[in-house]
Design goal:
The protein is α+β, with helices and mostly antiparallel strands. 22% of the residues lie in helices and 35% in strands. It has helices at 30-40, 81-96, 118-121, 173-187, 252-266, 290-294; strands at residues 2-3, 6-8, 12-26, 53-60, 71-78, 103-106, 114-116, 130-134, 137-144, 147-152, 154-170, 193-194, 206-208, 217-219, 241-249, 271-275, 286-289.
C-alpha cells in the first residue's frame, strides 16, 4: 500500500490499556485557559518516568463550557485509578488552582467510576471552603487571592488506550519534521485523543529493555540513522531521520481515527515510509494494523 508515493508498511502499532479522565478547565480568557492547560500537561509525556500522560485535547469556546467562559479540555492517563487520582489532584492543585481566574469541571459526567479532585483539594481552603450541589454534582469553592477557585468534587474516568503510534521515515530531518508537524495539525481535530510528547512529536523513540538493568526502556537503535552498520537496522536506504507520534485516547476508535488522519497528512514530499513501533504483541493487547486502518478511509 502506498499513499502519495509513500509506502505504508505492513505492520502494527501495539497499544495498551490505561485509565483516563477528562477535565474541563476554564478561565477569564483563552490565553489563561491555555496557560493553565499547558502547565498542567508539563512533564507528562510517558508513564515510563512520569506520573501520568497528559495533554490538551481541544480548545473550547465559551459556549462549550459549564461556566460559559473560554477553556481547554485536558485528558489524563495513568496505569490505574489510584495513580490517576493522585496525578490529577496534584496537577490540578499545583497548576490549575494556582493559575489566575481558573475553574475545573468534570469532562466525563455520568461515568460509573470517578476520582476525587475538588474533594481532595478542598482542604486548601483551611475551613473557609464551601460546596454546593447542583443537579446531583457537587462543586467546591475555595477562597483564593483573586476571588474563588471552583472545582468539581469528582471527575469521571474511562478505560482508555495508550501507546498508539506511527513512525515517519524521511529522507532528511527537515522532511520528516515537516511531515510530523502536518500530521499533528490534522490529528488535533480528532476528539478524544492527545499526543503527550512535546508538540506531539517524539525524536527519542524507545524499545523495551536495556543493556543497563536499571532501565526499563532505551533508545530504539534499529531506527537511529547514526547506528547504521553497528546494529540491525529497520531503515531503508535514503532514510536519515525518523519521528514518532504517540497517541493516547479515551477509546480505541479514537486512536485509530487519529492514526488514519495523521498518516494521511504525513505522506508528503521527502517521506519514504510510514511504520509503527511494536514489541511482537508482548506489551499491549491492542494491535492497530496500519494498512487495515488506512483501508477504512
Amino acid at each position: 500500500m502506498t499513499i502519495n508515493g509513500v509506502e505504508i508498511q505492513d505492520t502494527y502499532a501495539e497499544a495498551f490499556g490505561m485509565t483516563g479522565a477528562r477535565c474541563i478547565v476554564t478561565a477569564a480568557n483563552e490565553r489563561w485557559a491555555k496557560i493553565a492547560g499547558e502547565t498542567a500537561s508539563g512533564y507528562a509525556t510517558s508513564v515510563i518516568s512520569c506520573d501520568a500522560e497528559v495533554g490538551i485535547e481541544s480548545v473550547l469556546s465559551a459556549e462549550e463550557t459549564p461556566d460559559n467562559r473560554p477553556g481547554v479540555s485536558l485528558l489524563f492517563f495513568a496505569f490505574n485509578t489510584k495513580s490517576l487520582e493522585k496525578a490529577v489532584a496534584n496537577r490540578i492543585g499545583q497548576c490549575i488552582m494556582t493559575c489566575p481566574t481558573t475553574a475545573c469541571y468534570d469532562g466525563l459526567p455520568g461515568s460509573e467510576n470517578t476520582i476525587a479532585v475538588g474533594g481532595a483539594l478542598r482542604y486548601f481552603g483551611d475551613g473557609f471552603q464551601f460546596s454546593k450541589l447542583i443537579a446531583g454534582r457537587r462543586y467546591w469553592r475555595l477562597p483564593v487571592m483573586d476571588g474563588e477557585f471552583t472545582c468539581e468534587e469528582r471527575v469521571g474516568t474511562a478505560k482508555g488506550v495508550a501507546g498508539g503510534n506511527f513512525l515517519i521515515l524521511g529522507e532528511t530531518q527537515a522532511a520528516a519534521l515537516t511531515a510530523a508537524e502536518k500530521a499533528v495539525e490534522a490529528m488535533n481535530n480528532v476528539s478524544g485523543i492527545i499526543m503527550p510528547f512535546p508538540g506531539g512529536i517524539v525524536r527519542s523513540g524507545s524499545k523495551v529493555g536495556s543493556k543497563y538493568k536499571k532501565l526499563v526502556a532505551s533508545t530504539n537503535d534499529a531506527y537511529c540513522p547514526t547506528l547504521r552498520g553497528l546494529v540491525p537496522t529497520e531503515l531503508p536506504e535514503g532514510v536519515n531521520a525518523v519521528y514518532e507520534i504517540v497517541i493516547d485516547g479515551l477509546t480505541l476508535g479514537a486512536v485509530e481515527e487519529a492514526t488514519r488522519v495523521g498518516i494521511r497528512a504525513a505522506c508528503t514530499e521527502g517521506v519514504v515510509r510510514i511504520s509503527a513501533g511494536n514489541y511482537g504483541g508482548k506489551l499491549g493487547k491492542y494491535l492497530i494494523k496500519l494498512r487495515h486502518v488506512m483501508s477504512k478511509e
